Amino acid sequence: MVGLSKSRIAAFEQCPRRLWLQVHRRDLAEWGEGAEALFVIGNEVGEAACALHPGGIMIEAEPDLAAALETTARLIAEDHPGPLFEATFMHRGVLVRVDVMERLPGGGWHVAEVKSSTASKEYHTGDLATQVWVLQGCGIDVRSAAIRHVNNRFVLQVPGKLDGLLRDADMLGMLGGIIAGRDEVVGKAQAVLAEEEPQTAPGDHCSRPHDCEFAAHCRRGEPLPPEWPVTVLPRGAGAAWLARGYDDLLDVPADRLSGVNAIVHAATVSGTPYHDRGGAAFEMMQWGWPRVWLDFETIAFGVPRWIGTRPHQQIPFQFSLHLEQENGTMAHSEFLSTDGNDPRRACAEALVEQIPAGAAIVAYHAPFERRVLRYLAECFPDLSDALQDMAERCVDLLPVTRKHWYHRDQRGSWSLKKVLPTIASLDYGSLEVKDGGDAQATYLEAIDPATDPDRQLLLREALLAYCERDT
Length: 471
Known about the structure:
alpha/beta; Lambda Exonuclease, Chain A; Nucleotidyltransferase, domain 5; 3 domains; 6-stranded mixed β-sheet; 5-stranded mixed β-sheet; DUF2779; plasmid; DUF2779 domain-containing protein
């Protein structure tokens, strides 16, 4: 019999086919953008949870899980005071490793499932219920059970001092019904694994509560969709037409569309891009000169690394800018910190040095750049006036693009990655770093002391090339 775990049971409850594929055809998985960075954050939070209990003991999964089961049973039988990390139990073929187990003064145990999110989520209850079900099946007296999540109000004051980083959301009282049904769920999951691949049809469950790594595989057997599906219509209009029985945008009557939907439809049908050159020029004439075309890259750590920062706070480690003069000349400059030190001060100083006073600062989705500039202004009072002034001078290219340009190859999106290849012989396919998720993962590798220096140089060049492409 193939073993189950809490994550496999969660996969089964999302979709039986996902569980079967995880066990029997892992090679078909396709992971989405940012998965690696999320994995790193999760590991950091887990390590922090252990560091907050210096007297605890880690139960290693070496040489195998049988040894972890034996070690756990021995420590509990010997009345080890705990806490225990990754305590390992098996009941009815379901194996769990409990993040944190703490003995309670009055007897019994408190168990905690550590999550990198800043609050407990509805789908966390299933994971916790599976753990409690297994522990109770093994005769463990569970008196309380919690999701131990990140406290987003925590601010790092002293390096390595993480008291207050995590909070418990006690949930044992909410788990009774789920625990009572676990026997049936486990039986059904085991039955699925013993049979051929389920032919569960794709649907909303493919992305709820998580994006399924096998979604592309499951859709391969479906009829090919229209070349121009109606879902490219933006702002929910595509879903509305789909509900009316239209799946091909080319079949939608043009006289029943207006505004941006009419523009998207006409550009798609004709193959001719929509370009309101005069309208775009009029809006951009209001921006003044010189113009700075600016883009930031940021990183967010589940466990803050630098004094004065909070969990999951977006910290700028890189920017690229092109300085354009009214006579058409263009000069590029940039900033990138990959030494692993707090990059905020150096980033703020580089902005003040490189951006001329009074320049219009153009960003693609300017609210993000404004937030970064205002955050840096809060961090450094001596630079605050200049940085706040920059934030006030930010103008947004995205709404101008939305109103005045559409090429059918954008397929309903005005993201920079979709727009750029339609207006210039530039794309991101040839770059080692292709999107924001890649940039974060590359930065994390670059600042890792274990990374080879030659590799660090290559990673740095890749980050510089990516951010310059944006601006």
